[in-house]
Amino acid sequence: MKNLSKLLFFCIVLLSTLTVFFTYKIDRISAGDEGAVPGIKFPCDETSDDEFHSLRPYQGAPCGDAGKALFCSNEIQFIETFDLSSQCPRNGRTGDYTCDVNYPVGPHNLYIELSESEFAILGNTEQVTNNYGGTEEFDDAQKLNEYASWYLSGVVGRAEYGTPTNEQVVNYSGPVNKLIPYMIQEHQRRKTITDASVNVAYEDEDIGATVSEPQNHDQIVVCEQDGNPIPCSQGGEPLRLSSWGEGSLSTLNWVLNLIPGIDKWNNKFPPLPWDFEKQIDYQKAYQEWQGKVCVVLPFLGLQCADPAIGGIIDIVPNKWSELYSYIPLSSTVDKKGANYIKGDGPNFEGGAGTEISFPNGIQFTGMRQAPLYFAHTQEVKDLSELLNTTFTPSGYEAEKLSETVESLPTNELGLSCSAANIRVNEGDNLFPGDQDEMQVLGVQYQIDQVLCKVTETFRCIPNVYPCVERLFYTHKCNAQVYITLKTGTKTPWADEIFAQTVADSGSTFRKIFPKVGEGAPVECIADIPTVTDVTYDTSRSDSPNGGDQEVKITNYPSDGANSTTQLTFPHIGSVYEYFLKGIQTALRPKGYGEPIANGNCEPTVLDSCDVTVPDSAVPSKYLGSFKENFIDLADRWSQKCPGPENNMAEECYNFVASVAQKEGVNPAFALTIWLNESGASNYCEGGETTQDMGVNLKEIYQNLPEQVLKFTQLAKQQFCSGMSGYTEPMHGWLSRYQSSAGICDPSDTVASQYYYDVMNTTWNWVTGCPKNGKFGIQWPTDFSCP
Length: 786
Description:
Layout: H1 2-16, E1 68-83, E2 95-115, E3 118-119, H2 140-146, H3 148-153, H4 166-171, H5 175-179, H6 182-195, E4 199-204, E5 209-214, E6 220-225, E7 228-230, E8 237-240, H7 251-256, H8 279-289, E9 293-297, E10 301-305, H9 319-322, E11 335-341, E12 347-350, E13 355-357, E14 366-368, E15 370-374, H10 377-387, E16 428-429, E17 438-460, E18 469-492, H11 494-503, H12 508-512, E19 530-533, E20 535-537, E21 547-554, E22 566-569, H13 572-587, H14 625-637, H15 649-662, H16 667-678, H17 683-686, H18 704-715, H19 729-738, H20 749-752, H21 754-767
Antiparallel strand pairs: 1-18, 1-21, 2-17, 2-20, 3-16, 4-5, 6-7, 6-8, 9-10, 11-15, 11-18, 12-18, 13-17, 14-17, 17-18, 19-22
């Protein structure tokens, strides 16, 4: 019963921090508008008055090392072309022939600069009050509900706001401030102070050398005036981490300590109970730290007096204890990740008829990855670990329960490459743009052989009348060389954050959902990435000698909807889905909150539409007249290619309905999408690019089985909230379904108007439900006419 009481208390405290507002608008701002970076790799042992925000004081200035989680990223292909016709005499030949040229392409450099990217979900310091004029675009509830950093650390104790209100202390302090014993918090803050002053050595993989530096900057934590916190924008004396380590607590205590037999606490940081043999000595020191004068008297025990009563508060100041809670419980430093070139470097390949070699064995002389600067990863890792110490038995070691976490497909290098199911919101700038970002130096090769084409044409001889036709020859010997860079992302602490917040048996999510498996509310935890748009600029690259150069970017992996170039980061979408949203839903009454995504620990593998699926595999409500109506609609759907011979409605109806039912998606909804997107796989109408279920992945065009599986993953995604116009769940889902990267856009005119109206009409035709734009609160799993 004691353990149950503790768990209930844990849940109640978490619930009290989760004042949820499900409908609001997040407007995109241009990252960087609210202040410039103090300097990429600003020294960790230096400070500046131009700190950005107390949760990210030095943007783009990482300190210390971090574990990295790898994920696939885009393919960048340089296509270099050469006209070598002058190297290959025609010699009277006609048609195609190969020519040995031995043409050397000298060393040249390839540069790829990144811009316009941000890191979602973990934190946001750009759309709130900061030291560069940022304004509050979120209220306190939105901060906690949307961002792991704000949720864990709370809105209290921030240099930007001064003294918190009672409502902020009660409702928006965050679970760490509420659940962790105060003396443990004091210990953590002492560690934060130490991290900014003690050098730690680590191996920097970029420079291949050992670096020794503090693990955090000596940041400003609060601004005070007459001993009270005020917003730093209003002036006051800024106090840094080191302020609690400099000098003595008071002159009075220093003088008294000179007297033999008197021992006064004279440090600005607090005493800790395990530093004392006797409890009374700890209590005495603690009250002296709070600005009191104390003695231990025979029979009377500990006696303390407040010097303020005597009007001498300046002699024994208490501001160090009063303001100590503003010191962060973890490091707020950036950590360095990267968009990097995978494997041993670029792959060289000649085009049709072009053969290349490397006479001196050198393909390139150097390679550099593009650094990305991640805010909040260290903070979220540390605070989630600290939170998980609550109500955890001594000596307990969390298990990595891989059988309850969805395994993403991997590529030939073993990297996860799936992004069909994502979560994203507005985050903090990753600060790409360094002119020395991703590069391949000294690229060189030799063109050994080229394909020549000789064509014959008849033309009139110039200035001859009447026209006398004459045979002319066109002789072209074009070489083409492909230099392909397969890239990936390195995300600091992503594996550890995923484990601590969601996946492992001791994670916060698993304390609320101790059973994950068959029959449980969550049968399998989906491993969900997050993404950001990115722009690649290759304009600084050198052209090859005697040739031209163009660049092709292939967006990889694809999430099924994205039209822009993106970077993908592993696991962080799951933090949003389960840690930020799932716990809220679990602690609210049934029917409130948002559906929690189920992963697929045993993925369904389909090779073709199974025409043998019996009626017994389909719920009876979708048979009979319902099924006949659908097939009739499909036969009449296309004006260009009508009739049953052009679609798969009759053959695959049971298949689509049964797969949707098995995957937990309303079969009527899957059938509606199938009809609306492709006329029930009418390939005659759509041609080779037919997307059976509207999933825009080239590799599964005209592939109904794979389209159905991808669609069921998309169907269970988080709804968009804060939509203008229609407010039904279907509207919120359609905005994510049809948009690039599944990003929610409250002002999305496509989802609000044409696309939504078409879906509403098709739903009416398929189901017979009223055409009223409503699909039921339990959509997409419940089938009913609201």
